[in-house]
Amino acid sequence: MLNMFSLRGLPWVSSSDGQEKVELTATELESLRSELADLEDREAHLKAQLEHVDEILRSARLSGYLYIRTRWKPLPGEPPPIDDTDVDDWLPRFIVLHGSCIFFYLLSTDLSPQDSTVLSDVVEVASLPSITRENGEMQYCFYILTRHGLRIECSSISKIQVLVILIYLYV
């Protein structure tokens, strides 16, 4: 079985019956056992991560990747924000609408969200003008405004995905 692997640095020796085998010292054997235990721990962690993601997605109402950027509504007396429509600061995020919250993950495999918003804090949801990205791809946009003044701008190449989210948030 060991012949199937290219284990560099291990002392291969031919036995009297013509088969190759590896001879290890006790230290080398313990080191390999430790590496194997580390790999088993990593495998267990990845399986738990996958089960967690699977559970969230099964119970989520909606989920998927959107491009997100955030803005704060100016406070009374503050000057209007600088026009930054030319700034491309849209970041891909995996969103999950689960229960009474919207969760924002960096990646779909992350165990904990990067941010979240309670739906009861949402005071306004509306469409934004579509934008054309540098690659010529059309992005359909909308925003979510919270009672705290946080404006979450979202976009997707899928008009249907945006419409479904808007319908869900309106209800």
Share in β-strands:
35-45%
Strand order of the largest sheet: 6-5-4-3-9-8-7
Q: What is the CATH first-level class name of the largest domain? A: Mainly Beta
What is the CATH architecture annotation of the largest domain? Answer: Roll
CATH topology-level name of the largest domain:
PH-domain like
How many strand units? 9
Task: Name the CATH superfamily assignment of the largest domain.
Answer: Pleckstrin-homology domain (PH domain)/Phosphotyrosine-binding domain (PTB)
Number of domains: 2
* H/I helix tally: 2
Roughly how many Å is the radius of gyration?
A: 26 Å
Poorly predicted runs of 5 or more residues: 1-6
Give the proportion of residues in helices: 25-40%
Q: Would you tell me the structural class of the helices and strands?
A: alpha+beta
Order of SSEs: EEHEEEEEEEH
Distance linking N and C termini = 60 Å
The profile of the biggest β sheet is: 7 strands, antiparallel
Q: Give the overall pLDDT as a whole number.
A: 81
Taken from the alpha-carbon principal axes, the silhouette is elongated
Keywords: Coiled coil
Protein name: PH domain-containing protein
InterPro entries: PH-like_dom_sf
Organism: Citrus sinensis (Sweet orange)
Explain this structure:
The chain folds into 2 domains: 40 residues; 101 residues, Pleckstrin-homology domain (PH domain)/Phosphotyrosine-binding domain (PTB) (PH-domain like, Roll), CATH 2.30.29.30. Helix content is 27%, strand content 36%. It contains 2 helices and 9 strands; from the N terminus they run E-E-H-E-E-E-E-E-E-E-H. The strands form 2 sheets. Strands 6-5-4-3-9-8-7 form a 7-stranded antiparallel β-sheet, with helices on both faces. Strands 1-2 form a two-stranded antiparallel sheet. The longest helix is centred in the first third of the chain and has 34 residues. The N terminus is likely disordered.
